[in-house]
Amino acid sequence: MIILKCHTLKMKNFIWTECLGCSEIGRIAIKSFLKYHNNLKLNVFIYESDLGKLPQDENIIYHTFERKNNLKYFISKFSNNFKFCFSLSENLLRSYFKKGHKGTAHLWSYILKKYTSYDNYIHFDSDVVFCDSAINDLIKYSYDYDIVGQCRPYKCNPYNIDFGNLPDLVATCCFLFKPALCPSIKRLNQKNLAMAIQGKNKITGKKLIDFFDQITLEILINNGKIKYLSVDDFGGSGINGSRKSSFSSLNNMKTKYKIDVGRKIVHFSAVGSGYNIWKTKATSGSKEYDRYALDRFYLYMKCFYPESKIEFPNLEKYSELIDYFNTKNF
Residue 295 to residues 95, 247, 256: CA-CA distances in angstroms? Predict the structure, then answer.
């Protein structure tokens, strides 16, 4: 006799993405989310100027931020250093996003402090494109796992760094985690939580690879269970570091920069950063990352806004990928 496991407890899920000042990018992600997830609510964090440029739907909740005058902005920026929780202003976010992931980290710490009554947090980047109901997969796995996402290999990491016995973690482009097993979310003040998310506050005592890894590792230290998503369905890398899949010709292109291609999502990576660099001449502080981000932005524009006159020097290298998108109805 086969006994089917039945989950009677309904999880409360907070699903979000952010496209602050880059509505051209967020529009594609939101449209694809709506196409495949008509049963779910999505929270989108944006600037006031982005309103009206993005899809309107009863399942989309847009969140904007107050824009303060210069005096109030500088007073709040100083006083936030001494507060356990605080509201973000548009001025502050714009300032932090000029420094790359500092802006994202402060936004996420604000979200985790403000929206506290949820069992699961689910995030996807604004340069993710859904090809199927991927978020429903994450929710399904959450009944048995505490972290769900693409594998971020530590044992077989692409940098050939020896991290000892550290476990593999997850990429944050499309992932789920349970806050119950991360006491730092409640324990730390908002600024220190942002630093932990960014990786500058080593709450685990370990030097880790990437954004949010400190939080993910804390969940595992507290006996959290992790589910690595299929490379065939979600792209990215497996635990062995391989990008081989049913979509290998796209997921592992013979180019310097890779792109995650699977049956259920495509993730470009760093497109928002590239857009910001292109539009405002901002910098991440790393010339190599800036080159990478601009390459991703140019590629994204050729895939979804082919009428754009933005020049893309590596166009020929990505012709197979661009042709792939031309056959899809995004």
Answer: 24, 21, 10
Q: What is the pTM of this model?
A: 0.93
* Residue 208 CB neighbour total at 10 angstroms: 18
Amino acid at 227: K
Euclidean distance between CA atoms 164 and 166, whole angstroms? 6
- How much is the pLDDT for 286? 84
**Residue given tokens 């006491």 in the structure block:** 183
Which sign, positive or negative, has the C-alpha torsion 81, 86, 89, 95? positive
> What span, in angstroms and rounded, lies between the C-alpha atoms of 203 and 206?
8
The pLDDT tens digits of the residues spanning 224-244 come to 999 999 999 999 999 999 999
Q: How far apart are CA 266 and CA 233, in angstroms?
A: 9
Q: How far is it, in rounded angstroms, from Cα 31 to Cα 44? A: 12
* Cβ neighbours of residue 229 closer than 8 Å, sequence gap 6 or more: 137, 148, 149, 150, 151, 236
- Report the C-alpha gap between 64 and 49 in whole angstroms: 9
User: With 60 as the cut, is the pLDDT of residue 1 above it?
Assistant: no
Query: Position 142: which residue type?
Result: S
Structure tokens belonging to residue 268 = 């470009």
